[in-house]
Sequence to fold (267 residues):
Amino acid sequence: MRANPYLFAAYAATWIIHITYLATIARRYSRLAREVRELQK
Amino acid sequence: MKRLFPILVVLTGILLSYGLYQALVVAPTEQTMGNVQRIFYYHVPSAWTAFILFFVNFGASVAYLIKRRPTADIIALVTAEVGVVFCTVVLITGPIWARPVWGIWWTWDMRLTSTLVLWLIYMSYLFLRRFSSSGETPVLAAALAVLGALCVPFVYFSIWFFRTQHPQPVVGGGGSIDPRMLHALLINWLAFSCFAFLVCWSRYRLEKLQRDVDHAHATASLLETR
Fold:
């Protein structure tokens, strides 16, 4: 299969969007976990 | 349930890799568009997944309006958020596909415009949830979600109701599709649906934890004032 820049861009954009969203979930989760630890003290 | 999560993550990872292999290697090259047509295997499953998530959001919103259960409210919030992510993928991959095929990135055609309107409705839903501190926010959001869900069938059937540049559906629309293309499409849809389910699950746990922490903070401040 010949590489196509539009095809690459579409697939890359899809995963960039999903990974960015997953990263925001992970960041919010770690912030909340820290808050839970502080509440438990 | 906690043990099941990593197993599902691995299975979804395998499915997504298999879907990518099917889309890029196994599915035949379309005669007129060439390799750029393979965007179809990400664009269409993302749209279908977004529609399913918006319908779940509709069901959860109706359930919340009737029974006022917090679980229904959390499911509505989570599915709207993940649905917007998938709808964003549709709105990004669509123009990337349109540019080499139509010669333009965007046209104000009914399917494209109604998809953008749908995205804006659910973005306004998320903004309402994020920035309103009123106690009635979940009720208002649920009412907005019910109206938003009415837009979903309109977006889907707009290519039948109006003359549009967007192609007619190849599945269920009277068109024909190579079985290998159909297989790649359905595998990717299954893979993205599993992925969406896992993301919703993670986001649900996060939202529940957030509400527990907020509740603990409220209780702590109440005890302090006493």
